[in-house]
Write a structure and sequence with these properties.
Length: about 70
């Protein structure tokens, strides 16, 4: 359960869009801040692909590839 009392998304739940998406523009800002502060990765314009951000599983895999040397 998240701090706001809402259930956390599952690994395969869509993060965006009308099909059960859980992230709006305000939450996207928080996600971006978390990514910079906790992961220390930079997202290039070429990384902004739908498949990298479609759900938590895709986002985790994307972050892992950015952390690899």
């Amino acid at each position: 359960m998240a701090k706001n009392g809402l259930p956390l998304p599952t690994l395969d739940q869509p993060l965006f869009g009308s099909r059960g998406g859980v992230i709006d523009s305000l939450n996207m800002w928080a996600l971006d801040r978390f990514r910079r502060n906790q992961c220390g990765i930079t997202i290039e314009e070429t990384d902004l692909l739908q498949e990298n951000f479609q759900n938590l599983r895709a986002l985790i895999n994307f972050i892992k590839t950015k952390l690899e040397p």
